[in-house]
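Journal club side-thread
Mid-discussion, someone asked how the predicted structure for our own chain would compare to the paper's figures. Pasting it here so we can look after the session.
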Amino acid sequence: MRRRDLLGMTSGAGLAFLGEVLRQRPVLARDAATAATPGFGRAKSVLVVIASGGQSQLETWDPRPDAPVEVRGQFGAIKTSVPGTFLCEHLPRLSKLAHRYAIVKSMSHEDLDHGSALYLTLTGQYHQRLSSNPPPRETDHPFYGSVLEQLRPTSKFLRTSVLINGPALVPFEAGPGQFAGLLGRRFDSLIIGDVTTDEPAIPGLERVDELDSQRHARRRRLLSELDHIQARATQPAIDMQTLYQQAYGMLDRPAARRALDLDDEPATLRDRYGRHRPGQACLLARRLIEAEVPLVTVMWNHSNRGQDRYPDDQEQFGWDTHNDIFDVMGRSLLPRFDQSFSALLEDLDQRGLLENTLVVCLGEFGRAPLVALESRFAGATPGRKHWAAAYSIVFAGAGVRGGSIVGATDRQAAYPISTKYAPWDVTATLFHALGIDPASHFYDSSNRPYPISAGQPIAALYV
């Protein structure tokens, strides 16, 4: 072996060792004041539902029934279980559960396109290319699930963070922000795609009948020896070894494989969630929370605007409703969302899981307070443009004060008239709920520190 090759392999192993040390680095100690803040450490798990495409605040959580028709749209508003609170008429189940969740109406930021705004939502950081649709990069800021994977790796389910019904497509290519980026692939979340197919949630986890335990052990030893020869000299080799370790780890955990099997659920409950992609994804999320996975993210719709290409397939529909908003939302998006998200909240509550699970539902922005037909997009009837100046999101569980409204918007639900909150405040709230000080840091492979979040936990959720 040439000396150059030996040095290259040694340096690769050294970097891998350094990465392992950094992965085990504890979060900076919190002070007494942080520990005493409302909601700190109340959650054992966090479950995030992403309504990709920009869920309209006017057609969901912040209707304006008294506004002119070009503002309020075609849908009416209905009373909820909380006096003085109203939701869109197409959310009857969720209206009966309003006492279980809090609505934050004064979300606001400055990014106006899906790719970079999704990145902002999933990382808490603006993309370098504001209001654009960039591809994922290895230098991206990491997904909040990847940050948690480094800070607090779990041994119960192999992966600390699981992303269901992903990756999110914008609208047909994977968007940035849902991967580990600069942390490296070993910190990627476990991504599970469509769970409504007949295939296993993670193909390849069934043991081969003709492969007995002795042959299986010999194969693992051979693989280990080959990895040792490579000495993990290159990043692709490190990534491949990581994937092998994760796969074997899942094979060694029958309980983890059982958690992924939706056939264990009663047919009536599967029907209650909805026998469609978002419904079954939400059901799998509940099973993973029950299996004590610390962080589960559900992409409620895998494409932000699949209806342009597949107008007759409701599984492809996303919340990017530039045109035909009332047809698409009234016929498909809202009824499915009402069914699945309400089932998730009810199921978590009935099983006693909502007490220590923080549930969050949000999109990357809202929709414009003016209904208009856009000639550049498919569809024959009016819709709403992108709108990031004001939109609404929902929190529930883990100490969140149900039935509360945080923030307020003007008469057109167009601009906040109270304290503004942004995606970085959401990421701060997630880590804060898990008992991790969002003002502390994570580290890349070169030992450079990065703040966990630039925001502040939304304290008004708890008081």
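Post-session note: The longest helix spans residues 325-350.
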